[in-house]
Amino acid sequence: MSLTTPLAPVPVASPMPAALEGRTVLIVGGSSGIGLAAGALLASVGARVALMARDAARLSAAAGGIRETTSAPVIELAGDGTDEGALEGAFDRLGQVDHVLVTAGGFAAGPLLETPRERVGQAVDGRIWGAYAAARAAAGRLPAGGSLTFSSGVYLSRPIPGASASIAAIGAVEGLTKALAVELAPRRLRVNAIRYGVVDTPLARGAFGLADDAAMAAAGQGAPLGRFATAEEAASAALFLMANGYVTGSVITVDGGQSLA
């Protein structure tokens, strides 16, 4: 069926996270941070969770941690989330997939005049082409009412020095979100993004050189709410976007007021 062939209206369903029970969610970048937290939250409401990440050992540990707390199915998919073939293989293995969350993507920092393209290319490509590849793999496979959720960041609205390439990449993802929401609407698929502030994840700790809990807490004291977000607080927004069948083309902000400070 063509992507432009209209279907019946998008199905009406409960917008509460409990409605995700029995649904299958593919999380690209699910072995740590926000992706892993989303997997745990989804499993807690009875969703069938599939975690996809490059590092098979870390992926296995992440899936094992979720299995210790729930009886919901947790599937491990070792693979590169920017590889369209690997993503298609994941869909083929899973059968029906209802929602896709893409949290994979690095953060490249460095002053413009001191940072050649080669040093930022992997992070930029992973962010843009990871979202694009996931969309291509999902567009013909998700059922009506299914959704894609991408990750953005608060630095798009409050830029900082030395991060121009990464900020440009998340800007591209937000543009892609709105464009795909229009393009995939005839398929009754929804596309959204979450603009995160600083979240306490291994990625953030590494990017800011914060070695432990005390350093993270001290760094967050200047935030409007006195700390940075937990991974669970950030991930809960993804469940809202999956469950609410009338949200599409939206970029919601979860930053604890950081964009206002």
Supply database-style keywords.
41% helix, 261 residues, seven-stranded parallel beta sheet, alpha/beta, Rossmann fold, 8 helices
Q: If you had to describe this structure to a student in words, what would you say it looks like?
A:
This protein has 261 residues and is α/β, with parallel strands linked by helices. It has one domain (17-253): Rossmann fold. It is 41% helix and 15% strand. It is built from 8 helices and 7 strands, in the order E-H-E-H-E-H-E-H-E-H-E-H-H-H-E. The chain has a 7-stranded parallel beta sheet with strand order 3-2-1-4-5-6-7, with helices on both faces. Helix 4 (117-139) links the parallel strand 4 (99-102) and strand 5 (147-153). Helix 1 packs across helix 8 (231-243). The protein starts with 23 loop residues before the first strand and ends in a 7-residue tail after the last strand. The mean pLDDT is 91.
Give a short summary of the structure.
With 261 residues, the chain is α/β, with parallel strands linked by helices. It has helices spanning 33-44, 56-67, 84-94, 117-139, 164-184, 202-208, 213-220, 231-243; strands spanning 24-28, 48-53, 74-78, 99-102, 147-153, 190-196, 251-254.
